[in-house]
Amino acid sequence: MTVQARIPNPAGLLPDAVKAINLLYKAAHSAGVPAGTLELVHLRASQINGCGACVDSGARSARKAGETEERLFAVAAWRETPYFTDAERAVLALAEAATRLADRADPVSDEVWAEAARHFDEKQLAAVVLWVATTNFFNRLNATTRQPAPQNWG
């Protein structure tokens, strides 16, 4: 099935949006959380939301950040594989909870938050939360306007 975008990406149509998105990206990536960890968070939230364009770009960005194929293939099943550190598991759980807000009355439990806080300081946690929110923002833009993943891998 070929997906055709309804309109070009909305962020690209509004130049001020691109500036704001770039600032969010810079802020989230400036707090000392490893780039690969942020890419795993982006990839997992995008998988949950079914955003093909973001899954594609997330996997590519994670590879550029040094992620292995083995770990990328296992992100969707991170709980059942030995490939992730305790810190990565903590932020993947946080990313899932923050992405699935409507699934439970207390979407981000104290246990999920406390485990992430064991591995990251407040500034890093702020970056992770901002990055999850930004990823969900991207997912919603892309899903609403049916932005396709690239058809040609180069």
UniProtKB/TrEMBL annotation:
Q: Which SUPFAM superfamilies match?
A: AhpD-like
Q: Where is the Carboxymuconolactone decarboxylase-like domain?
A: 15-97
- The keyword Cytoplasm is annotated on this UniProt entry: no
Q: Which Pfam families match?
A: CMD (PF02627)
Protein keywords: Oxidoreductase, Peroxidase
One function term, GO molecular function aspect: peroxiredoxin activity
Q: What is this protein called?
A: Alkylhydroperoxidase AhpD family core domain-containing protein
